[in-house]
TrEMBL record:
Organism, as annotated: Nocardia albiluteola
Stretches assigned to coiled coil: none
Entry protein name: LysR family transcriptional regulator
Alphabetized UniProt keyword annotations: DNA-binding, Transcription, Transcription regulation
Family matches, as PROSITE patterns: HTH_LYSR (PS50931)
Length: 310
């Protein structure tokens, strides 16, 4: 196959050539393009130079297409039509992309903050579609990296360095057990070393709650006695048996009030954590996504602490 030279063609010059063929003169083509006649003539001359072909027969009363010019014009027409289709399609895709938001959140944030944000967002921008992913902090981070979502909210204390982040709220983890557990009536705070060896029911690996606990303890922890995927499942397992659990105080607030779970005091360990928004550095803040980010920024500047359901 013969290797053809690559030419840096000016799409606007091709457009002018097509207009000359359709409108009958350089001046008419220039008016249609809203440029001066000398500018239109220069574009055609540069195009002729690059193609090494004479496209116009310039005469005292005007210019007409040469035989080569007519052939090149038909090819140019296809290029111009294809470029217009590309630009129209891309514009449509851009409008569709900026008319919806794609967000994700780890479970505790999804339960206690995102519903509040979405309710306010729908009041501000009614009818805006929302794609909402719920999973572990690790899943949300992967979804942001993989461009499945544009904005994520996570609980993990170890934020990825390749993503941008901003704190949005904070909460506190608590150790809870069922009423029949041996620690249910303990009044002396449990040291971190004992907590590390306590049989626990936990969320799966990649959970922000689990990572916060492991980092705060600062010592090797016993393997989880049971790993479950949701906060609700962890609560049920802890309330029903002999295993403790460490969860957000928001998650267990109702169970603590009605006695299904009991909080065990802790010593020498800080389980306060921050929740963060994360996004890619190249995220385009436009349309609905920009509106949602503004809402989060407004909320973060004067946040109301997440409140448990009554």
């Amino acid at each position: 196959m013969i290797a053809l030279p690559r030419l840096d063609l000016d799409l606007e010059a091709l457009r002018v050539l097509v207009l000359i063929a359709d409108l009958g003169s350089i001046s008419a083509a220039a008016r249609a393009e809203r440029i001066s006649q000398p500018a239109a003539s220069k574009r055609i001359k540069v195009l002729e130079s690059r193609l090494r072909l004479e496209l116009l027969d310039r005469r005292s009363h005007g210019a007409v297409l040469t035989a080569h010019g007519r052939m090149v014009t038909e090819w140019s027409r296809r290029v111009v039509e294809a470029a217009d289709a590309l630009l129209t399609g891309a514009s449509t895709l851009s409008e569709q992309a900026t008319s919806k938001i794609r967000i994700g959140a780890s479970q505790t944030v999804a339960e206690y903050l995102v519903p509040r944000w979405l309710a306010e967002f729908r009041q501000r921008t009614p009818g805006t579609p929302v794609h909402f992913l719920v999973g572990s902090s690790a899943m949300v981070i992967d979804a942001v990296r993989g461009r499945e979502i544009d904005l994520g909210f996570v609980e993990t204390p170890q934020l990825p360095t390749d993503l941008s982040s901003q704190p949005v709220a904070q909460d506190r983890l608590v150790l809870v057990v069922g009423p029949a557990h041996r620690l249910a009536r303990r009044r002396i705070p449990l040291p971190a070393g004992e907590l590390a060896q306590l049989p626990l029911v936990t969320r799966q690996q990649g959970s922000g709650t689990r990572e916060t606990l492991e980092l705060a303890v600062g010592a090797p922890m016993a393997d989880p006695a049971l790993e479950l995927e949701t906060n609700a499942a962890v609560k049920i397992a802890a309330a029903a048996g002999e295993l403790g659990a460490v969860l957000s105080e928001l998650v267990v607030s109702q169970e603590l009030r009605d006695g299904r779970l009991v909080e065990v005091p802790l010593a020498d360990i800080d389980l306060t954590r921050r929740w963060h928004a994360i996004w890619r550095g190249d995220t385009q803040w436009r349309g609905a996504l920009a509106d949602f980010r503004t809402l989060i920024a407004d909320w973060s500047r004067s946040p109301q602490p997440p409140t448990p359901p009554s």
